[in-house]
Design a protein that fits this description.
Elements lengths: L3 E4 L4 H12 L5 E4 L5 H8 L7 E4 L6 E3 L2 H11 L9 H30 L6 H4 L5 H22 L3 H22 L13 H14 L16 H12 L1 H13 L4 H6 L5
Parallel strand pairs: 1-2
Antiparallel strand pairs: 1-3, 3-4
Helix pairs in contact: 1-3, 1-8, 4-7, 4-8, 8-10, 9-10
Length: 263
């Protein structure tokens, strides 16, 4: 049975897991669902309440991993050095940054982006891409209830969006300072889980053109949101995040090793 990844397609934490698996050149099938509707598939897989969930094998030999960080660790175990630095000190630094981004940046970009997009019915085609047809229909029939539930669960309101904007600014400022010495990557001399996690979790506010899931066009946002996204993209941290997508999103570790590069 092929490895399965239960996702919400546009979730940036799912993109983090997807990117890690693809970089490690590990084949998997994506089992995509809308928010709320993903719960049943997650529970059937043996996960908790959230995505992504990786399911490898079946029956008594089945492995279930319900956390993007643990999924990347599982992937690196199968392709050592593809994501995690081999130097112990660099490895510890990369994992510390990954945890920082998971805790602070990820929730902030999600809340800010949802605040901009959830009121927009014209964005539904993007949000429902690659999910089962019945879920698309169910969203149309229950949209006000579903959106209200998501807003309450994630505390998506004007005050929450503003707090998230400040947190994004703070994280971007810290990354700009770290990159200020001219380094290309956050840890060491090569791409690592720290770079992947920052880029993936910043994607909802950077809208990278090379993102595998179609992102909303900049002109679809309000004038105020467009100005903010443009400012984030032009910042040192934003330019770095976009560069990680441009240079590394389609990179596979087997290809990197074959051509003798250092990733």
């Amino acid at each position: 049975m092929p490895t399965r990844l239960v996702t919400i397609p546009f979730s940036h934490f799912c993109e983090k897991a997807r990117w890690g698996l693809e970089r490690c050149d590990l084949p998997f099938e994506e089992d995509a669902h809308l928010p709320l509707f993903s719960y049943l598939s997650v529970r059937r897989a043996g996960g908790g309440r959230t995505v992504p969930v990786l399911v490898d094998g079946q029956d008594d030999g089945k492995t279930v991993i319900a956390d993007s960080t643990e999924i990347l660790g599982w992937a690196d175990d199968r392709r050592p050095g593809a994501l995690l630095p081999t130097d112990p000190r660099d490895r510890a630094d990369a994992l510390m940054l990954e945890d920082d981004f998971d805790t602070h940046l990820g929730p902030a970009t999600r809340r800010w982006a949802y605040f901009q997009l959830l009121p927009r019915r014209d964005m539904d085609d993007l949000l429902t891409r690659d999910v089962p047809r019945w879920q698309k229909l169910a969203l149309k029939l229950t949209r006000p209830l579903a959106v209200g539930f998501i807003k309450r669960g994630l505390k998506i309101d004007t005050a929450g969006a503003e707090r998230s904007r400040v947190r994004i600014d703070d994280t971007f400022a810290r990354i700009a300072q770290q990159l200020g010495d001219g380094r290309r990557y956050l840890v060491g001399e090569r791409f690592s889980v720290a770079d992947l996690t920052f880029a993936a979790l910043a994607a909802p506010v950077l809208l990278p053109p090379s993102h595998p899931t179609e992102m909303p066009a900049l002109e679809k946002f309000s004038e105020e949101a467009r100005a903010q996204i443009t400012a984030w993209r032009a910042s040192p941290a934003g330019e770095y995040g976009l560069r990680m997508y441009r240079d590394h999103r389609d990179e596979r570790m087997t290809v990197v090793v074959r051509r003798g590069a250092t990733a």
